């Protein structure tokens, strides 16, 4: 497990008339073993915060640390290495490779890192996503919901220390979403992983230990042990 933290994180897109301050001095800590949901209206900076915290985008000013490492001190190679070894990603657009089967997509992060999957863990991950019989299918042969579950399984397969998710259950019906989130929460409890999840769904946020609310690029509120009715 690992702690990620931003300090005075500011992100400005564009310049002059078209300048947008997406994040304005955001300081937040995602503690070891904690499941945090980020909520707020569209365009408030949720994705930008997640991308900067995960080292996918660089801040205009301020700092981001993962563990004891300040990301701005890393060159591209070391940053890639850190993402590969420590971080799991669940994107909205799945980013599944079309030429690989579901199972090959799930084990891809392990293959890239040159690690052998823990067979028992892999079996549980695959059982969780409920793809039995479709593991040999390519993404185009799976429904949107099935593709999303493959993306979640891929993020969990390598047991990363920290997981970043952008609407990880956005395309799932409520039952499939609950299964995936329940598994994510159990995995976090069991392995002590840190999870940061962007969501607009109060039910999804109810699985988190804490919800932080962004508005116009600033942190405006925070709630521990959220429930769907309190988040609404
Ligand atoms: P959210 O995830 O909460 O919808 P984003 O982080 O995607 O918000 O965007 C925050 C703000 O930054 C928005 O005003 C958005 O238009 C702007 N923005 C995001 N990405 C870019 C970009 N690549 N270029 C210019 N503006 C951007
Ligand atoms: P989900 O709730 O998982 O999104 P759907 O209701 O969209 O599932 O799909 C139901 C079934 O139809 C799935 O088992 C899936 O295998 C199949 N299916 C859906 N979309 C496609 C597609 N584009 N190509 C092949 N099979 C599909």
Automatic annotation (TrEMBL):
Cross-referenced Gene3D superfamilies: P-loop containing nucleotide triphosphate hydrolases
Pfam families listed in its UniProt record: ABC_tran
Keywords assigned: ATP-binding, Nucleotide-binding, Transport
Domain ABC transporter: 4-232
SUPFAM superfamilies: P-loop containing nucleoside triphosphate hydrolases (SSF52540)
SMART domains found in the cross-reference section: AAA (SM00382)
Annotated GO MF terms: ATP binding
Protein name: ABC transporter ATP-binding protein
Species in which this protein is naturally found: Streptomyces celluloflavus
């Amino acid at each position: 497990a690992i702690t990620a933290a931003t300090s005075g994180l500011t992100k400005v897109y564009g310049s002059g008339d078209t300048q947008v301050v997406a994040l304005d001095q955001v300081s937040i800590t995602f503690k070891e073993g904690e499941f945090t949901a980020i909520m707020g209206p569209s365009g408030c900076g949720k994705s930008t915060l997640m991308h900067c915290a995960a080292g996918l985008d660089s801040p205009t000013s301020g700092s981001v640390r993962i563990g004891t490492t300040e990301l701005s001190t890393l060159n591209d190679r070391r940053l890639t290495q850190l993402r590969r070894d420590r971080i799991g990603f669940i994107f909205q657009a799945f980013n599944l490779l079309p030429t690989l089967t579901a199972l090959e997509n799930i084990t891809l992060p392990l293959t890239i890192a040159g690690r052998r999957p823990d067979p028992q863990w892999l079996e549980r991950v695959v059982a969780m996503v409920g793809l039995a019989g479709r593991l040999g299918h390519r993404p185009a042969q799976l429904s949107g919901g099935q593709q999303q579950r493959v993306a979640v399984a891929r993020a969990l397969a390598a047991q990363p220390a920290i997981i970043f998710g952008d609407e990880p259950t956005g395309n799932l019906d409520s039952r499939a979403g609950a299964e995936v989130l329940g598994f994510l929460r159990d995995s976090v409890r069991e392995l002590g992983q840190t999870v940061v999840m962007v969501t607009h769904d109060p039910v999804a946020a109810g699985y988190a230990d804490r919800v932080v609310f962004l508005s116009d690029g600033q942190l405006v509120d925070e709630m521990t042990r959220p429930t769907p009715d309190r988040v609404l």
